[in-house]
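Protocol step 4 of 6: structure prediction from sequence.
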Amino acid sequence: MQAVLPIAGKSSRMAKKYQGPKQLLPVLGKPLVEHMLESLPDAIDDLVLVVGGPYENDIRAYFGSEHNGRKVSYARQEAPLGLGHAIQQAKDLVKGRFIITAPDDIYNKADLEKMIAEPDMAALTMKRDDWQNFGVFVLDEQGYIIRMVEKPKEFVSPYVSAGACYMLDQEFFDVTVAPSARGEIELPDIVNALINERGRKCKAITTSFWVAINDPDQLDVANDIMKARIANQTTN
């Protein structure tokens, strides 16, 4: 099975303290992206990296054509036109079912295993009190996503999208959506179209662990969280 990793961009929020791809910043002594890669299911044997931006050569040099036993290939996003657009650039490289995940988030491997075990589409979610700061999933009684709402001002659901972690298939590339107000092709808009226009099922899988890293402060927090997690695993 393949994993598509959107790893293009400028790392703008990290740029105040660091010049380079944030995915290669150290967390507990190894690059952040390695923590994410360790959380991928064993069934993932092929990585498709969507690259672009000023650090493309750094990413290509780090991963090469094979990384820790997994094949690596590259798609290119010529301009930063949104996460949905980035994933679409992998169309010619992806075959069958695949997962996407943010390369700068850390997950629990067991949760990703549950996600790929679903017979249809799936996405990771986490129940949070600060739902207004995230894209949220409105779920039916069986835990399937009815729709996705970006940073709602009024309460619609406590189940937030845990980064950009989905299991999708080839139909994803058949969907066309209009650019959002900020001029980007948004991933939630494509998934919403699959659910509401094409009748697809997308199961929300509640994750037990998710660390998102977008700025220097969150990087410091991630180090502390991972230290505590390792200490807890050692004592239990």
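Step 5 (inspection) to follow. The longest strand covers residues 159-168.
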